[in-house]
Fold each of these.
Amino acid sequence: MHIALCDTRQGGVFKDFAGGFGVGTFRGRSVRGKVIEHFFNRDIRPSALALGYLAAGLKRLGHTVEYCLDELAPADAHVFLPALMTVPRERTLIREINTRWPQSRVLVLGQVASTIPEAFADLNCQVLAGEPEQLAAKWDDVLSSTERAVQLGTIANLDDLPFPDWSPFPHQRFRVGYDFWKFPTAYVQSSRGCTLSCSYCPYIILENKVRTRSPDSVAEEIRHDYDTYGFRSFKFRDPLFGAHKKHLVEIAEHIGNLPRKIQFSVESRIELLPRETLRILRDVGLTSVTVGIETPNRDTLLKYHRAPIRNDKQSHFVDMCRELGIRVVAGFMIGFPEDTRESIRAVLRYAKRVNPFVANFNVCTPYPGTEFLDDIQGQIDSRDWSRYDVYTPNLKYENLTTEQMVALHQDCFRHYYWRWPWLSANWQYLMPRLHSLLSPLFGPRHRETAAALPVTAMALDVIDQPKVA
Ligand code: SF4
């Protein structure tokens, strides 16, 4: 069969984020906001990892695969992986396929298909719940089924997945500039799931545990991606990289043994990355760490089941990363139902104090399937999915109007970046090549130059890693 993987970047969507619900991009509403928007929008992030896996799995079955980005092509089957904010767009495309190629099988999968299948109920398509990569394993079952809703289930062993096939995608253009300075960039994953239970988190809808891939397989995929597609940087899409200490150590060891040095970034929690761990990862190519700080308000964190971290530790973590030459991308969250003007300004003040390279101010979003949504059902203001881009308020707030929330959100971005302390602390990441030329002049205070620890000596006992489960 000829299979079309139908994708869109409408609204600047990045489908791989927010547990597969996708996120949009910040839109500035003032001149300063537009400048910030420009920097946020320079990247062409990779297509969703699930699409790469699907391309590989379906080709392995003997099918031909075509990637259709914001356009349609005739095919025997059309596969959609919608984000929340692109549901209206993908519904339009499915309707068009139903009209132009009525014999084509239309399959909708992913997190959106799993949690709100009713969004596609009036269209001629099958809605597949579960992990999207399972489609290749269950292809015959799905095609022989006359049910509109099919359960794909989850992948028992992540090592059974083939390496993603990026050849149908415009992979030479993929870049994530806030994490790296070498491109193109690929997504890679060494684990799925999280053991924590933040009530608003979409990553734990499917499971509240962690599944891992073998470090061998992860390193071999990176080597394959480097040689086959020319990728030079790798963004790990694990929701909680390093949840298992031994696994983290082995991944670092295998990356260190690759024939060529790569750049990579991870997303994790601060307590999982003490200095020695950061240094070990930095020495084998870590350039950037994404962490969720959310809010300095401990009561808010506890209310939404987020394990708090001592505030001074977060500042210390950012300083430590800066010394090691590692960027920090920090997520802050505003727009909780009970937020006030003052509580949001407190988040901004705190962000300025911590002063990471990237501060991303997300608006708390009631994702389908989360405990948070169950808790605040009566306070949903909009179920227009096109607004679910993580930068648009969709709640009825107890103390603020939607317009006030929008204005405060814009203020957070504008006031955070237009500051001399931000520029002076982070210019090295804006101009990494210039900085590496000049860094010998600055001495060790600006970049730690300690001799690389041999990865094989990453004595597990030097890594003081607390349990998060
Ligand atoms: S730490 Fe919280 S927000 Fe992050 S992946 Fe785990 S449950 Fe989700």
Amino acid sequence: MMESPMLFWLTFYLLFFLASSLVGYYKNQTVAGVLLGYVFGPIGLLLLLMSSDKRRGKCKHCGSMVDKHAYYCPKCKNKCFKQLI
Ligand SMILES: [Zn+2]
């Protein structure tokens, strides 16, 4: 139901704004996601997708990607992180 090109671009922009906010939320970078999506739109979303995931880190024992909130590695059962950062 696009009545005018203006409305189309507004919806287009809003979609990318929402998408980047969501990606930011999942990467634990909500503020960065919202700001990037707001300022850069589609480019902000791309930047965010390329940025590192702050929620996960490498287990120093087996090298697998582990959620930083997990105290023990689910793969090798070793202690992964001394403290939550
Ligand atoms: Zn491990």
